[in-house]
User: What shape does this take?
Amino acid sequence: MMTTFVQPARKEQATAMVDDEVLLSQARALDQEALGRIHERYYPAIYRYISFRVDDLETVQDLTSEVFTRFLAALRKRLGRPNSIGPWLYGTASRVVKEHYRRRSRWAEVALDESIGVEQMGPDEGTEEMWTRRELREAIQGLTKDQRTVLALRFGGDLPIKEVARLMEKNEGAVKMLQVRAISALARHVMERK
Amino acid sequence: VDRISDATLLQSLEQLESGQPVESILHRFSDVATRLSEFLETTRRLERLSAESPAAVQQRAKASFLAQAAVQAERRAKGLAWLTFSPGWLAPAVAVALLVLLVGIVVPASASAVPGDVLYGTKRAVEQWRLFIAADPDAEAELMASFREERFDEVLHLLSTARSAEVSFEATVQSMGETQWTVGGLPVEVDPQTVIVGSPRVDAEVRVTGLTRFGRLYADEIQVLDDGDDLPGVGIEDDDGVDDGLSDDGLDDQLDDDDDQEDVNDAVDGELDDDDLKDDDLDDDDLDDDDLDDDDLDDDPADDPAGDDVADDDETDDSADNAGGDDDGSQDDSGTGADDSSIDGDDDGGDDAGGDDADGGDDDDDDSGDDVDDDSGDDVDDDGGDDND
Assistant: This one.
């Protein structure tokens, strides 16, 4: 059994929290309070994690809610119930984002219209900021999958190197190197664009 | 960035994360400051890429999450838990129920769809299905007639609601003016761009393909269906009917293309190597030229005695193709079309790129997802899939 659990954000690590394992067993009984705490604890992190990969904030909202709905649905299963909270939620978030992109690319293929299938930013985003963000996300798509995963967990999930290493089953040194290589590649990309 | 050592990058990143200001880090590594600043700036941008969830959004999401949980708890308490511990037969049962829903709700709902509606494709597909399962030729003919009326009614509806859509319908010509014909009682705008196929006359049965806009119908093409003095033989009428029913707007265009393409193919077969056909994009110029050649041949069979081998070949191909009928032609065409698109490659390239992107994203997710899965066991896969179902 695991003894450590993913903390959603570094700043919250210091806070004494009920252990995830206890929360999870209460959640299985559909205890409202436990579920509420899980939601409070992880919603911001999962939202941030998804928003790292997806432009449109409304979509981010929907996908985040989808992750929690799936968590709820998974709890009622006899077999294959989540036996962790953080890793389960991040894993499902990844899957939900993947499904979103697959749907979108299929839709874009069918529509054959460039304007469809391209994410829209929120109305309050400045145009320039919007383009830098989109450009950066596109550049991230050009990285290797490990590099992308490290960035998404580090900057999207706001997880410490140690947690990223555990989730990716790599040692911390390798994760640090992946991160450096990924940022270097992006920086190079930005410089080439200039 | 390339010229900075990994050690420097690692160090500077750690310093940045420990909260040191960029300036002091750059100062420390002043020999590579310019490139390092780009690296650190990119890191900063990555940190800003994610969005924080607004408190109100989170509150709403939580409320809805807890409400879902409450419903689930209630269901469990009511002893409906057997539904959640889904036995193996439940998923197929749900699938069948969904199918029944689809057939029972979507199909009837599509009946009133007109071109441009989401369900219009469903409507046409259902029509094709009904034709396919028609018991006998009489029933089929009856269906054809009713579909023909349906097309006409759709146009009426589009015109009366001033909606814009591409339409195609069949009716009888009642009058033929300079810029306006009356077909089946409907005014049809005709301009020099309108393609007239066959020799139309009053009382001729025609298929009008065009666009409705602002309550008017602009014809792109008017095709005479009962052209010539052929006796109304049953076979011929049936053929016509089948073609009409099976072809939608797009197909009509393709049929025309087929003719052009045949001409091109004929000419090309005679004059060019197969390789040329494959490698070369068929320019409009080529196409025109080929058409001209063909016309010449058709007009002047006397060319043959002149002993032109190429012309001979063409002539033979032509007649063979004509004898072969439209089916051959359209097959050839679709084959050629497919080749063209894969060789031209623009579309394919785009698709591939898009696919790669998507795949890349997938891989990424897969990877992290798998890792996470390993931690939490196989749960994630099962759960995700079942929930969707």
